[in-house]
Write a structure and sequence with these properties.
Number of strands: 7
Largest sheet: 7 strands, antiparallel
Number of helices: 5
Order of helices and strands: HHHEEEHEEEEH
Radius of gyration: 34 Å
Distance between the termini: 91 Å
Strand order of the largest sheet: 1-2-3-7-6-5-4
Structural class: alpha+beta
Length: 239
Amino acid sequence: MHRPTAPRLARILACAAVPVMLVATGCSDSDSGSKKKESGKPSAPATPSSAAPSVKAATFGKLPEVCKTLSEKTIDKLVPKAEKKEGKALPSSDTNDSASCFWSGLNDEDVKDLQFRTLTVSLKRFASDPTLGTGEKRAQDFVAKQTSVATTADGAKDAKTDKASGIGDEANVVGTTTKKDDNDHKNETVVARTANVVITVKYSGAGLQGAKTPDADALKNGAQDATKEVVTAVAAANK
């Protein structure tokens, strides 16, 4: 049997070391060398990469100062004798994406009718993202999530959820009851959306030391009025 010459053997070993997908580029078993590449034939143009999908820009680019979204007049009405009329800002890693403010007060003018109130305003802004969707769509999803959370927050019971009209682009109201320190608390939470910003307003009340429990409808009306005011503040901050 005729043994392969040294040059031919070197070419065979070299071809064996090349990945399979590259073998077709032309190792030859011929002693005369590889065939010349075809000339004058243009190479196929590279396929352009697909452009990143675009999404509609979010309507609102920033949040207002959360503790300034409600007027002193509103705080006096909803939280009589508030400890801090200016409210207490809750910790946030970025107040342009999310922010919350809290008010509380005990109206003790009538010792036989001690009324305690708390009010929390929370804001959450969503930017548009090619992979996650528009800011508005992301905010819509968050409204549904927040509404569900409100039905059981702090061990809430007897949850009742309704739609609210005339507040932003959409709004839900969740009424619940909770028990703290042997006192029954009524809670009304409004979860509303204005474009790409979600507003959550929780208004709670309790009669202490045997005082009458506050009326749920009065709390609901107060929470809805406060939410409308916050909606206006969001729009004003983005003018």
